[in-house]
Amino acid sequence: MSSRHAFISVTSKAIAILAIALLVGWMCPARAADVLVEAEDFQFYGIWQRTSAGEASGDFQIQVMGGPKKEPDAITLIELPETGTYNIWVSSRDYTDHEPGERRFRILIDDIPADIESGAHGHDGYYWEKVKTMPLEKGRHVLAANDTTAHYGRFDAIILTTSDANPNTLDERALQKWRIEPITLKTTPPDIFANVPLLVPAGEMEEVARLDNGQVRMIFQKYKDAQGKIQVVRHTELKVGGDWR
Ligand SMILES: [Ca+2]
After folding, report:
1. What is the pLDDT of residues 60-90, one digit of tens each?
2. If we measure between CA atoms, which residue out of 108, 141, 115, 112 comes closest to residue 33?
3. What is the largest CA-CA distance in the chain?
4. CA of 221 to the centre of ligand 1 (A)
5. Contact 235, 228 (CB under 8 A)
6. Residues 6 or more apart from 165 whose CB is under 8 A from it?
7. How far apart are CA 101 and CA 121, in angstroms?
8. For 135-169, b where at least 16 C-beta lie within 10 A, e where not — what string?
9. Rounded mean pLDDT of 33-37?
10. CA of 40 to the centre of ligand 1 (A)
């Protein structure tokens, strides 16, 4: 075979491979990443409590019961399947005839607060609000719900999606297909973020989990308090000018 014929043969093969790749890409467009996490599936409730709510996604929610304390946050660890720019939606309960907009809370993603508080959407019932759009890497991220008004906030569920879908236009069966279970931190007892006073560690600290996305890192450490009970503390550090602070 002459070199010219060999070149034409190789070129034809390359064009055929490219055509197949384009065809496959056309037939299988990049799928949006859609993740739904029920509030009641959070691993640590902090001051929040799981309550039954028939109209809520998954039939349950978590709720604060009022009072002076706004912490600890509800917190959980999830895994995102893709890197992308995510629209973050939160479902909460608001009322139009009884203290509307008073049951507010704010979601945090890797300790970065959402742009708006949840719980003041103005609808009588559960409603999805887009609270933030942000780039997120594939992998592990921490979700938290911070009570901001200490006034009976009701957190139903959170969606992170790279699509432009509005969850209010989708029925619950479709949304439940997006549901994932949070990652369970195995070395922490389930009541680790219970309503306990802030204690000064009396013993040696042991790191049990670490999340690091290059800009924010969160370190979970456990220790025994003066009563011998295991406690877990979370340290959050931000990278500023190349240094962790
Ligand atoms: Ca729910």
Report:
1. 999 998 777 788 999 999 999 999 999 999 9
2. 141
3. 86
4. 29
5. no
6. 32, 34
7. 7
8. ebeeebbbbbbbbbbbbbbbbbbbbbbbeebebee
9. 97
10. 6
